[in-house]
Amino acid sequence: RIDGDRLWRTLMDLATIGATPKGGLCRLALTDLDKEGRDLFVRWCEEAGCTVTVDEVGNIFARRPGRNPDRPAVCMGSHLDTQPTGGRFDGIYGVLAGLEVIRSFNDQGIETDAPIDLIVWTNEEGARFSPPMLGSGVAMGVFTLDHVLDIRDTDGVRLGDELARIGYKGEVPVTGHAMGAYFEAHIEQGPVLEAEDVEIGVVTGAQGQRWYEATVTGRESHAGPTPMRLRRDALAGAAVMMEAVEAIALEVGGDACSTIGRVQVHPDSRNVIPGRVWFTIDLRNPDPDALARMDAMLRERLAAIADKRDLTLELTDFWAFPTTPFAPELVGHVRRSVERRGLSHRDIVSGAGHDAVYVARKVPTAMIFIPCENGLSHNEAENIKPEHAASGCAVLADAVLATAG
Amino acid sequence: RIDGDRLWRTLMDLATIGATPKGGLCRLALTDLDKEGRDLFVRWCEEAGCTVTVDEVGNIFARRPGRNPDRPAVCMGSHLDTQPTGGRFDGIYGVLAGLEVIRSFNDQGIETDAPIDLIVWTNEEGARFSPPMLGSGVAMGVFTLDHVLDIRDTDGVRLGDELARIGYKGEVPVTGHAMGAYFEAHIEQGPVLEAEDVEIGVVTGAQGQRWYEATVTGRESHAGPTPMRLRRDALAGAAVMMEAVEAIALEVGGDACSTIGRVQVHPDSRNVIPGRVWFTIDLRNPDPDALARMDAMLRERLAAIADKRDLTLELTDFWAFPTTPFAPELVGHVRRSVERRGLSHRDIVSGAGHDAVYVARKVPTAMIFIPCENGLSHNEAENIKPEHAASGCAVLADAVLATAG
Ligand SMILES: NC(=O)NCCC(=O)O
Ligand SMILES: NC(=O)NCCC(=O)O
């Protein structure tokens, strides 16, 4: 039994930090607001009797001891950072559902054999510092600590400096934390559960992603006296490439997705034909072969467009992870919980990357999804139903209990 | 007779202020570098015996007196501000060719009946503060002084504040300056003269322009779990619109041009489907009917794309001027000079806007073009031949002399 009202109040309390006029959150990683959110979370955990430690990349671990201190911890967690125009639940729900599990175990005097760790991972969104999932990535040995501390935001500010500035550069070694299992509750961030009127998504894994950066170079010239046929317009070429990127996902079909999220035009003057355009590309597919096909289509089509227009294309791999299955045993704990509780449910593959994806490389992992309104996420209007929040939290509690003994 | 070597040295001297590594200039309007360039120009004019005054919008007037102080001045001029990645000659050539005319008249003891004014117009490029041609625009009553002083750059800095800061907020009333005629020498900024191996372009007028701002609004959502068919991707729609803008000029053909120079994507995060895209559009045509047709095509096609993709389009008129003929009598002075000097020449319509376009609304006006290398302008590689610079300057001197008596 968990306290759904308390969970909701806690969510709303944290949603006051970085609130936007449109009802969302802007609490970018390692800003003053992120510090404020972290501080509040740490206070709540300490009030719940947990011991809080911070590792070298700012990941926060709140421990509820078990009977057997030698067993690796059964872990829950997610992230507290948001997109620039993000919602109140993405990541935050998973963290605070974990806190509610601990609070309700306390209320009911439940002891577990293994210790329970509630984890906040640093910079999951990849919005301020890119790529995403940096805290979990370092912890799981995907990135080196030095590499990640040296990543800069668009203003050139170093991640490591910001970590120190907000007081979350911890001393605990970032790798080697003993995790016996990891559960992450999260909003679906897509429309499937809502459309099928299903309360819980039993997440069997996450689809693969490939991120790129494209730089198209042409020749700057005057927007007036330069005849169309003599132009080498980097932006006109980039626009056709952007259309091609969209077409790739449409042609491949199924669950294929393609997105261009960022664009920079140089020199960015109204009457100058752009000489250079930079943009990002995000390709996704749960089917590894289809994702490889999308990658090949991307390279071929963008190169052909550049060629035809006498433009230079530099297409670099920025980040990627393969389709990642979760641990059947842990997924089984989630499934048994929803069945026992009589919650409507379906298996689902995560469309987004999550810290769970990196954790799954080293630790048995599972995720629990709840529906979100209109399938909207990475949007200030992101919303969930309190009863779904409570159901997901109850399933998380069941799964943790089943694993921690 | 003018001194081509001195003109070239003067051009190279001014090109040291704001020089870029690629051999161009970045001397945006009303920056410290613009002040430095203006100060050097003022010193040169005073050394040449001119009286220098500055008007309320920062336009600089260097006067060489005539025998008859009651006659309105015969004027020469252009601008000293550049694009962010501009060249060494755009605008600057016209100003320094005018200075060389004054210097050589001094050397040869030439007196004119009318006074001669050499003018530097403020913020011609429209790069830092947009639209272009603001100094000449206020002087000719196209814009009010208050409106222009209140225009802001992309950092929100006010034009009027920058003018005061660099010490070029003058006291002379900006309208009502007595101009009897205006000649502006300029590089062609296009490929025509070079392609035909012609030394001088006799400019009969300037083609019309229409500038717009487009804002496309869709719905922000997550780049992963949002299926392609449920997206309202403002950038995917904007990319198709950008292609349509290019296609309009290609379809209308002839001298039609269309350019998108600036793009801003919101929220500009790699894994967020953009909810809003803003971009600028620049349409040009020497034929007024064809320009009107392009305008109609733009409105219709962009609206149809927005409609089809369930996006909202806001298309606003930002700036425009109609095709502008220059004064036949003054154009005749230019033509007679090139003929007498045996320079190869052709009539040409300016593809760019120039201060001359606004001046022509109130004052008899003509322009003189010289070729530029590869037709390149608004590019750091912009270049001209010293002998062309000298020829254009000599023609300017002839035309001024023929007009000033
Ligand atoms: N949940 C989430 O937004 N994660 C960031 C990585 C991704 O874009 O999938
Ligand atoms: N010469 C020049 O670049 N003028 C600015 C206005 C235009 O873009 O035509």
Please tell me about this protein's structure:
With 405 residues, chain A is α+β, with helices and mostly antiparallel strands. Helices cover 35% and strands 23% of the residues of chain A. In chain A, the strands form three sheets. In chain A, strands 1, 2, 3, 4, 5, 6, 14, 15 and 16 form a nine-stranded mixed β-sheet that branches. In chain A, strands 7, 9, 10, 12 and 13 form a five-stranded antiparallel β-sheet that branches. In chain A, strand 1 (51-54) and strand 2 form a beta hairpin. In chain A, helix 1 (4-14) packs across helix 12 and helix 10 crosses helix 12. The longest helix of chain A is centred in the last third of the chain and has 21 residues, at 288-308. The radius of gyration of chain A is 22 Å and the shape is globular. Chain A starts with a helix and ends with a helix. Chains A and B meet through strand 8, helix 8, strand 9, strand 10 and strand 11 of A and strand 8, helix 8, strand 9, strand 10 and strand 11 of B. One N-(aminocarbonyl)-beta-alanine (URP) sits between chains A (90, 124-126, 132, 352-354) and B (223-224, 271).
